Amino acid sequence: MLEYLPMGGSVEMVEETLKLAYGENSEFIKDKRIAAVQALSGTGACRLFADFQKRFHPDSQIYIPVPTWANHHNIWRDAHVTQKTFHYYHPESKGLDFAGLMDEIKNAPNGSFFLLHACAHNPTGVDPSEEQWKEISHQIKVKGHFPFFDMAYQGFASGDPERDAKSIRIFLEDGHLVGLAQSYAKNMGLYGQRVGCLSVLCEDEKQAVAVKSQLQQLARPMYSNPPVHGALIVSTILGDPELKNLWLKEVKVMADRIIGMRSALRENLEKLGSPLSWEHITNQIGMFCYSGMTPEQVDRLTNEFHIYMTRNGRISMAGVTTGNVGYLANAIHEVTKSG
Fold first, then answer.
1. Which of 150, 164, 247, 278 is catalytic?
2. Active-site residue, selected from the candidate residues 54, 94, 186, 212
3. Which DSSP category does 176 fall into?
4. Surface-to-core class of residue 67, CB atoms within 10 Å of its CB (0-12 exposed, 13-18 middle, 19+ buried)
5. Structure confidence by residue, pLDDT tens digits, 83-130
6. β-strand pairing of 179-183 with 146-151
7. Which of 51, 69, 97, 133 is catalytic?
8. Is residue 204 flagged as an active site residue?
9. 186 catalytically annotated
10. Which of 22, 141, 261, 264 is the most exposed place for a label (fewest CB within 10 A)?
């Protein structure tokens, strides 16, 4: 076996990864319209794309949701791309600010780039509904914007990777060209292996060859070529129908556990007679729950109950268990009951 992977990474891994996002029988894969390279997990994929954007659309800007994963801002900043933000989270409803989001898409200069979380939005756990995604896609099309999806949690939101790719599929059906960052850190637990993929859907095969060549040119001075071990794990699992089915089952078990913990936390809070609505705990999805607690309330949780979370009130639902959910609910009730 070769010591090095080529600049574009493992061909098998990239092939299987594209099927996961674009669909097993995607016409775009068949027509070779997707330029794709293995990347250093989702972060590396975003960074490669940000540099690609800067090189070929030097005057463009990227619109990033408020809030977003903090590293998104660093990535596009270090690639020297102008950043703007768009409304996403609605603090009062602890849900989506759909009207605000649509206004921003309409008001952004034509041909802007929009960063979208494909599913299980980090940090809020708030995702648009299928109908809302259709409207977002339509409006982005009308304005000629370029949608760039970061999909760090495929399979983690609903337990079904197909369902979690729905937002991307809607955009593909609407005839968008898209950019996409994918990661296996969460859904295969390969955090330390840095396995991801960057893909760009192009007009035709000729353009895809050119774009892939440019992505490799960007990767070469940055890290030369991606690591081999994690890519082999991914291509081995996804390339074998039995192993793939086993993985799909395990992803579902893991997602269902998190969904179950959301219900348990909400039920416990309601049983305690909390005066607040905790519906958002079960409405949100994925690894994180944007609890709506204030920084002061979070500080009290830490100081009085030894419960740790980020000061924006984001709970990592993966850390909630049948053993600690009662204690957690009690503590949250204690610090929030005065309103």
1. 150
2. 186
3. -
4. middle
5. 999 999 999 899 999 999 999 999 999 999 999 999 999 999 999 999
6. parallel
7. 69
8. no
9. yes
10. 141
